[in-house]
Amino acid sequence: MKLETILGWANALLKPGDFDDVSNNGLQIAREGNEVAKVAFAVDASLASVRAAGEAGAQLLIVHHGISWGGGIKRLTGGEYAVVRAAMSANLALAAYHLPLDANSEVGNNWELARLIGLERISPAFSYHGNVIGLVGRLAAGRTVEIGKREFAIPQGKIGVCSGGAGEFATAAKFLGCDLFLTGEANWGEVVAAQNVSMPMICAGHYETETFGVAALSRRMADALQIETVGIGLPT
Question: Rounded to whole angstroms, how far apart are CA atoms 23 and 36?
Answer without folding.
Answer: 24
